[in-house]
Amino acid sequence: MPPRAEFALRPMTGDDVELVGTWRNADHVRRHMLTTHPIAEDEHRRWWDRSKDDPSRRLYVFEVEGTPAGFVTLVDIDPARERASWGFHLGATGLPHGTGSAMMFLALERAFEDLGIQTITACILPENSRSIHLHGRFGFRPARAHDGAASGD
User: Fold this and answer.
1) Where are the beta strands (DSSP E) in 29-133?
2) What tens digit of pLDDT does each residue of 11-65 get?
């Protein structure tokens, strides 16, 4: 049995901006993102400039055996309510089986243990069955549609 890959999650830096931009524009990533248009370099740079020091956001690069392989973002971090939303993608291809699970585990560990988050939400496109399945394996459940009716005790 081959040795397991070494996985790590580290904060994104300015040195990662170009690579993350390439991943965000890759067809295999963009088709599962809410932003589906090709992202111009200046648009991507503005996103980085807005995001890097925003206290309601955390940006991470996921590494496999020391090589950047994916991206995780925690957004809408609300420490008072212990909530956040997130998104992630594997930019690299040909990765070992279980890599997505490892990335998700490390991201959840960071959110729960380091940031004190208790609730994480995700917006997953319905056709992204792999992500839906992966989230389900980690205990996520679909949100219930709100019928607009108020409830009270």
Assistant:
1) 58-64, 67-78, 83-90, 119-122
2) 999 999 999 999 888 887 877 777 778 889 999 999 999 999 999 999 999 999 9
Structure tokens at 40: 């111009």
How is residue 116 written in tokens? 């004190």
| pTM reported for the whole predicted model | 0.83
Q: Nearest Cα to 73, choosing from 94, 52, 95?
A: 52
Task: Round to whole Å and give the CA distance between 6 and 55.
Answer: 29
| Sheet (strand 58-64) strand order | 7-11, 58-64, 67-78, 83-90, 119-122
CA distance 24 to 16: 12
Beta bridge partners of 87: 73
**Which tokens sit at 127?**
């056709």
Question: Tokens 């999650």 identify what position?
Answer: 9
pLDDT computed for residue 85 by the predictor: 92
- The torsion angle over the Cα atoms of residues 45, 105, 102 and 104, rounded to 10 degrees, is -40
Is 2 exposed, middle or buried (CB count within 10 Å of its CB: 0-12, 13-18, 19+)? Answer: exposed
Q: Tokens standing for 106?
A: 């490390």
